[in-house]
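To the wet lab folks,

You asked to see what we're planning to order before we commit. Fair enough. Below is the target structure as tokens, and below that is the sequence we designed to fit it. If anything looks off to you, flag it before the synthesis order goes out.
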């Protein structure tokens, strides 16, 4: 009896253990199901907005190519300027400099003044901006013109002491700050088209001055591409061959460019690299 009772007790204990194991397993499954439900809720009610945020995160930060330049109104050395009115139906080079009465900026703005006639030939206007006030700009212009006699600063320089405009124009240098800890502008330059959209941007750190010949070349390339619906190859200069975009078929190219075109003979056998001349 005792032996039978002991055996029954063992069986009862095993059955209890199995039942307990099942309860624990079911509890774990319930916990997993609850966790899964929480994850689903999190996905639909939290992750969906986060996905939108992620999309905006991977997008280019701030004003960039293809964006419409903000229609800001600022004081300048030529009085109040509203950017869209200033652009009108022309191209504008909108450029920032880190600060008045600084060495590299002085050489740059003197060069801008020296190239003003070249830009004017191309129907391009110049518009500067920094965080210094208008009076500072006016006083500094005397130094600029003295540094390069004959290079008169005839273009306006806008003042943005609040630093709000340079943020909207994506011209903030993340590393350079003034004595009060305020961010300074970078050496940014946007070429803005008649449609008020950014066509091309250059961005330099404060320690590197811009190359004005390259700015002129970029303007020429943009205007040539817009006028003839072509692209310009590496190191292109006016008068040199341009590239026919790949979206234009050979038949279309023959109609569009009656002067003819040359197709590069490449190992791939693909005729995507085509050159032509435009007036």
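Sequence we intend to order:
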């Amino acid at each position: 009896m005792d032996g039978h009772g002991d055996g029954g007790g063992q069986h009862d204990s095993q059955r209890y253990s199995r039942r307990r194991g099942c309860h624990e397993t079911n509890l774990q499954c319930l916990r997993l199901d609850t966790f899964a439900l929480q994850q689903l809720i999190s996905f639909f009610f939290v992750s969906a907005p986060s996905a939108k945020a992620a999309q905006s995160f991977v997008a280019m930060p701030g004003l960039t190519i293809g964006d419409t330049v903000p229609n800001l109104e600022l004081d300048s050395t030529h009085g109040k300027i509203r950017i869209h009115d200033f652009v009108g139906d022309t191209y504008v080079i909108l450029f920032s400099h880190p600060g008045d009465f600084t060495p590299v900026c002085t050489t740059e703005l003197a060069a801008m003044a020296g190239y003003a006639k070249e830009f004017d030939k191309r129907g391009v206007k110049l518009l500067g901006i920094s965080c210094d006030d208008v009076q500072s700009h006016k006083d500094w212009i005397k130094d600029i013109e003295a540094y390069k006699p004959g290079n008169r600063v005839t273009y306006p320089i806008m003042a943005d002491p609040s630093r709000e405009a340079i943020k909207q124009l994506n011209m903030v240098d993340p590393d350079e700050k003034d004595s009060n800890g305020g961010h300074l502008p970078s050496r940014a330059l946007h070429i803005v088209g008649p449609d008020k959209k950014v066509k091309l941007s250059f961005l330099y750190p404060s320690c590197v001055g811009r190359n004005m010949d390259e700015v002129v070349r970029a303007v020429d390339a943009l205007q040539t591409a817009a006028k003839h619906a072509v692209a310009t190859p590496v190191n292109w200069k006016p008068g040199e061959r341009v590239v026919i975009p790949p979206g234009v078929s050979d038949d279309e190219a023959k109609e569009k460019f009656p002067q003819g075109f040359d197709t590069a003979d490449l190992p791939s056998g693909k005729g995507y690299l085509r050159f032509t001349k435009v007036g």
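Structural context that might help your review: The chain has three domains: 1-59, 73-210, 229-276. Helices lie at 2-58, 83-87, 103-121, 134-147, 164-168, 212-228, 250-256.

Thanks,
Computational group
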